[in-house]
Specification:
Shape: elongated
CATH class of the largest domain: Alpha Beta
Radius of gyration: 20 Å
Order of helices and strands: EHEHEHHEHEHHEHHEEHEE
Number of domains: 2
Number of helices: 10
CATH architecture of the largest domain: 3-Layer(aba) Sandwich
Number of strands: 10
CATH topology of the largest domain: Rossmann fold
Largest sheet: 5 strands, parallel
Strand content: 15-25%
Structural class: alpha/beta
Strand order of the largest sheet: 1-5-4-2-3
Helix content: 25-40%
Length: 305
């Protein structure tokens, strides 16, 4: 699993400007993207804007911008930026603000997750990216960053776009980000298989040995076992393991509630992903970390890939 080094963004000074732009043709894309990038190029106290989108669209932008502006706008293929989970994308954004943004986090970001690839590969994956879009409104609220998320109807389907509109404040259907996250967490998870392997405790050595036996490479098994230990909340009453590499799964049961919807999404003030960061570490290592509550406590389910 790809991880991104987190970093603390610069001192806040303004509100996060989070926009959505929907298009269905290349011409429509340019009509939306070029004014936005021009706005960023003209903004005082800002570094050059960044365009993170499909490689073919970057070619269109460079041709339309011309030699001078084309050199000033930073272009990043979205397959290079969105290299891991949605939680990794939060870390990457925080690190970019820390390293490149102007005062208070000022920068213009044109952003398009890979809906033709990872982000759109399943309804399960798409839901995580909608969560990322919603929680960004909370996580980056103090910063004067301007982000425009572009959605191409040729790669992102109607259900994805409808959900994404609820995650952007410039729409008439915008919903409280914590409500969106709660709705996603209300979707039941598939039950654990009856033959799931049981442990008495989330012992990292036992988890690692099981993961290696199920086909994970030693380094990946180490990461998975550490992520399980980091996600464990005392008292752990049950540990279940199932699946085959790379989709190894662990479910932890606890009698405690984990009610913070931002748990594991807030970047810590450290220079690297490392043990001791709890759910942040787990979310950076695993493709999915799901928390579900019931009358008896909570389940924390981790899936490596």
């Amino acid at each position: 699993m790809t991880t991104t080094r987190p970093a603390t963004p610069p001192a806040p000074s303004g509100a996060f400007d989070h926009r959505i732009a929907v298009h269905s043709t290349d011409d429509e894309f340019l009509a939306l993207a070029l004014p936005f990038l021009a706005e960023g190029l003209a903004a005082p106290d800002e570094p050059p804007p960044v365009a993170i989108t499909a490689p073919a669209k970057l070619d269109l932008l460079r041709a339309a911008l011309g030699p001078e502006d084309g050199r000033r706008v930073v272009t990043v293929p979205h397959t290079d930026w969105y290299t891991g989970s949605a939680a990794n994308a939060i870390a990457r954004a925080a690190a970019h603000l820390a390293a490149h943004a102007g005062p208070g986090g000022r920068i213009h970001l044109l952003m398009e997750p890979d809906w033709a690839g990872r982000a759109g590969r399943s309804a399960r994956e798409s839901a995580e990216w909608i969560r990322y879009e919603a929680l960004a409104n909370v996580l980056f609220a103090p910063y004067a960053t301007t982000a425009m998320c572009v959605y191409d109807t040729r790669t992102a389907g109607p259900a994805v776009i409808a959900a994404a509109r609820r995650a952007h404040p410039d729409t008439e259907v915008y919903a409280d980000p914590l409500l969106v996250a709660a709705e996603l967490d209300a979707v039941p998870l598939p039950p654990a298989p009856r033959d799931a392997h049981r442990l008495t405790t989330p012992d990292p050595h036992a988890v690692r040995a099981w993961a290696v036996d199920r086909g994970l490479a030693a380094a990946a098994a180490d990461l998975f076992a550490t992520a399980v230990a980091e996600a464990a909340v005392d008292p752990v009453t049950r540990v279940l393991l199932w699946g085959e590499a790379p989709s190894c799964v662990c479910e932890l049961r606890t009698t405690r509630r984990l009610d913070d919807p931002l748990a594991g999404f807030v970047p810590p003030p450290t220079a690297e992903v490392r043990p001791g960061q709890g759910l942040w570490f787990a979310r950076q290592v695993c493709a999915y970390v799901d928390i579900r509550h019931d009358a008896d406590g909570a389940s924390v389910r981790l899936q490596y890939a």
